[in-house]
Amino acid sequence: MTSLTAKTSWSGGFSSSNPFTVYWPSGYDKKKVPSYNSNPPIGLYLDPETGNIIFIPTDCNETTIACIKVIEWRKDSTGKYIRIGEVRRDMQFIIKTCPNNNPPILTSTNKYSVCGGSQLCFL
To answer: How far is CA 75 from each of CA 71, 80, 81, 84, rounded to the nearest angstrom?
Structure first.
């Protein structure tokens, strides 16, 4: 935001829904919604209920500052939704390669099933 009501402009083809370079396969229509459950995820997806941000960066030399606004709604006694609050959070995204930060590779021939509330111990 540049003021209380004016939004900032984006440069270089970026926008509020595309704040940095993310994976879009060739031929995919960017007018479609991102596909977070694809493997790998396509586009940038912000889950409106959990707040999870899901994306695969393709340029590991970018930094952007983004603001996410959350509006809270509740039903009143008549069942009508009323807006009860709003909060904004500024976040800085630094996209870079971290060569020593690789996910672990887990291999096992054992399978375990555990019911909720039960304990599973490994000795």
So the answer is: 14, 5, 4, 10
What is the domain partition of the chain in residue ranges? 1-66+93-98
Rounded to whole angstroms, the Cα distance separating 13 from 20 reads 9
Residue found under tokens 């509330």: 117
Strand 53-54 versus strand 45-46 pairing type: antiparallel
Question: Does residue 103 carry a pLDDT above 80?
Answer: no
N residues, the chain: 123
Give this prediction's pTM. 0.62
Q: Which amino acid is at 8?
A: T
Closest by CA to 34, choosing from 23, 21, 43, 25, is 43
Q: What is the pLDDT of residues 58-95, one digit of tens each?
A: 888 998 888 888 899 999 999 999 999 999 888 899 99
Structure tokens at 94: 């630094």
> From residue 17, how far is each of 10, 76, 91 by CA, in Å?
11, 32, 14
